Amino acid sequence: xxxxxxxxxxxxxxxxxxxxxxxxxxxxxxxxxxxxxxxxxxxxxxxxxxxxxxxxxxxxxxxxxxxxxxxxxxxxxxxxxxxxxxxxxxxxxxxxxxxxxxxxxxxxxxxxxxxxxxxxxxxxxxxxxxxxxxxxxxxxxxxxxxxxxxxxxxxxxxxxxxxxxxxxxxxxxxxxxxxxxxxxxxxxxxxxxxxxxxxxxxxxxxxxxxxxxxxxxxxxxxxxxxxxxxxxxxxxxxxxxxxxxxxxxxxxxxxxxxxxxxxxxxxxxxxxxxxxxxxxxxxxxxxxxxxxxxxxxxxxxxxxxxxxxxxxxxxxxxxxxxxxxxxxxxxxxxxxxxxxxxxxxxxxxxxxxxxxxxxxxxxxxxxxxxxxxxxxxxxxxxxxxxxxxxxxxxxxxxxxxxxxxxxxx
Length: 409
Hints:
Elements lengths: L3 H13 L1 H35 L7 E6 L17 E2 H10 L4 E16 L2 E10 L3 H5 L2 E5 L4 H6 L3 E5 H8 L8 E4 L2 E10 L9 E5 H7 L5 E2 L1 E6 L5 H18 L10 E5 H44 L1 H9 L4 H34 L15 H28 L2 H5 L3
Parallel strand pairs: 4-9, 6-8
Antiparallel strand pairs: 1-11, 1-12, 2-10, 3-4, 3-7, 3-11, 5-8, 6-9, 7-8
Helix pairs in contact: 1-11, 2-9, 2-11, 2-12, 8-9, 9-12, 11-12
C-alpha cells in the first residue's frame, strides 16, 4: 500500500545525505553499465560469427575437382579430374540417407546486357535445391524448378543487386537479358543473407549451361546439405567418406589433397561452437565478477548507512516507530536508489553501444547489443543484494533500545 509519509521520509533522508546516496547509486549504476557493455560486445562478436555463416546453410558441404598432384593408377600428375552427371547420380544413390539436398554447379564469368546497360556477373548453372544451400529468398517471381531442368530452359533467377544495376526501380521479372550473347528470360529475383556479393549472382538450370556451353555433361562441383539429424562428428565422418569414395571412383590417390577438394561447414561449426562456448564462459565470468563487485559495494555502503543512522533510528523508535517500520523504511530506500541507479546505468550502457556500435565493425564486433531481460536480471540481483545487505544491520538496529541508540557516538 502506498504510504506518502514514508516516501516523504525517504526523499528527506536522501536529500540530507547526498554523498551517501550518490555513492550508493554510483556503485549500482557503474556495475550495470559495465555489465551492459560487456554483454553487448560479447553479443556483437557472436553476431559477427553468425554473419560469416549466414550466406550458406549451416549444414552445407561443397565438393570440387582440380588437377592431380600424385601419380596413381595411370593418372599422371597434372591430370584434370572432371565431374560429370553420373557423379551426381552416384552421390544421390550411394548417400541417400545422409544427404538432405544436392545440387551440381557450373560457373562462368559472363557479360550481361539489358538495353544500354551492361556489366559482368557470375552465371551459375544449378539444381533447384541449391536455393536451400545458399539460403536464398525469392523476392519476386519464382526460383528454378525441375521442369526448367528437364526442358533445359533459357531462364534465369537474378540477385537483387543485379536487378538494381540493370533495371533500376523497375521489376526484372518477365524481361529479357543477353547473357554471354544468349537471350534468357528473368523468372525471379532473390535476396541472400550472405550480403552484396551473394546478391550479384545469376542462376540458371545446369542442364541449360551444359547444352549452351560445349554441349557436354561436365560439372564443376557439388553443393550438398547433410541430414540435419546428423551430429557434427557424424557430419564430418560423412563428408570424409564421400571424399574417399569419389577419389576411389576417379582413381585418385587418397594422399592427393588437391585433385578433389571438400569443404564441410560441420568442421567450421564445431570450431565456432567451441569458440562461442568459450566466449560465453568468458563473458559470464567477467559479467559475474562485475556483479559481485557491485554486490560487495552496495552491501558495504548499506552496512555503513545503517550504522551511521543509529541515532536517527533511535529517535524514530522513541517517538513510536516499530522495528518493522524502521526495517521497511531502510529497505524501501535501498530498493529505490538501486532501481533508479540501475536503470540509469542500463540506459547509459545501451546508449554507448548504439553510439560506438557502427565504429566497432572494423574490430569484428557487429551490432553490439544486450537483451533487456538480461540486464533487468542483473539489476534485480543487485536490488536483492542491497535488500539482504541492508536487512541484517537494519534488523539489528531496529532492536536497539532508544536510550542506547541516542547515546551512541
